[in-house]
Amino acid sequence: MAWHSLEPIKAWTATQPGKGTMNRMARPKIGIALGGGAARGWAHIGVLKTLLEAGIEPDIVAGTSMGAVAGACYVTGKLGELEDFALGLTRRRIFGFLDFNFGGSGLITGQRLGNRLEGHLREFAIEKLDRRFVAVATELGSGHEVWLNKGSLVNALKASFALPGIFRPVQINGRWLIDGALVNPVPVSVCRALGARIVIAVNLSGDVFGRGSIIHDQDAFAETPMALEDQELPEGNGRAAVHLLHRQIFGRGSGAPGISAVMMDAINITQDRIARSRLAGDPPDILIAPKVGGVKLFDFHLASDTIALGARAAEKHLDEIIAAMRALAA
């Protein structure tokens, strides 16, 4: 669907209760579940912008990891600021946000990123937002799924994207919390529990073909292993140490992944398996799956292309969403 064809949809939604000063409760309550996916999460910006351009305003937002960040920026009116930040990122700037911590429970403290969030979202408490919002996290130890729906919005986001081993866990109300993608990668269940009649889900791992298949031929692994470089930190050479850390984050030119990339991909595989299972058991009414499989989990500098992929995927479902809204309109 091209952008010019949004006009008929916008014209219809503009006549429905819930627009402007009209009563939002008179139309079906819409929930959107925004999935995790690290750098692929920039696609959520394109999805949300496309929905808003068509006059579709979700009333309930549930997000996991980067989905929580995008969702929080939508409900606070900061989506434009998030897009500007994303489009300004380069590999060098990304590396500048990574405050390494070799003695703690995560490779990155997350303080610099946290300060950035504080600058834009410090004033917001979740329970006082105009729209219902939940960030999903996982409790360390118990593995409980935690729905963060009260208190500091910034703390909730930091907990929801605290990738284990990458970012240090976040303590909220006596619980140590990590990334919610380990238990609920695309939180459709949250939207349903909060009363959404139409649930739109955005799954960022939906186009990873062949994942989870079985390789029977053991000879496929009989090749001579690649010799890895010495990974000890060089002494007395700060530039070399920084270069080594850069390789650990973004990988090496030879194709061998860095430690962080291995951890991220392991989490992504787990997330993909869980998402498939949960979406099968509790399917959304509309599933948007941007074709972001070619975006690596640390490709935050590819925001422009990733946002466009999200917009393109959302455009394909606008007619379907409007049909559902018409069918359930009071």
Defining traits:
single chain, 330 residues, alpha/beta, two-stranded parallel sheet, 12 helices, 10 strands
Quick recap of the structure?
The chain is α/β, with parallel strands linked by helices and 330 residues long. It has helices at 7-14, 43-53, 66-75, 79-87, 91-96, 111-121, 153-160, 188-193, 238-250, 259-281, 303-315, 318-328; strands at 30-34, 60-64, 106-108, 132-139, 145-148, 165-167, 170-172, 175-179, 198-202, 286-288. The strands form 2 sheets. Strands 1, 2, 4, 5, 7, 8, 9 and 10 form an 8-stranded mixed beta sheet that branches. It has a two-stranded parallel sheet with strand order 3-6.
Rg on CA atoms, Å: 21 Å
For the secondary structure, the number of strands is 10
Q: Return the structural class.
A: alpha/beta
Average pLDDT reading? 80
Percent strand equals 5-15%
Which range best describes the helical content: under 10%, 10-25%, 25-40%, 40-55%, 55-70% or over 70%? 25-40%
Q: Quick one: overall form? A: globular
Order of helices and strands: HEHEHHHEHEEHEEEHEHHEHH
Helical segment tally? Answer: 12
Question: Separation of termini?
Answer: 27 Å
Unreliable stretches (pLDDT < 50, length at least 5) are: 18-25, 221-238
Q: Biggest β-sheet: count, sense, barrel?
A: 8 strands, mixed
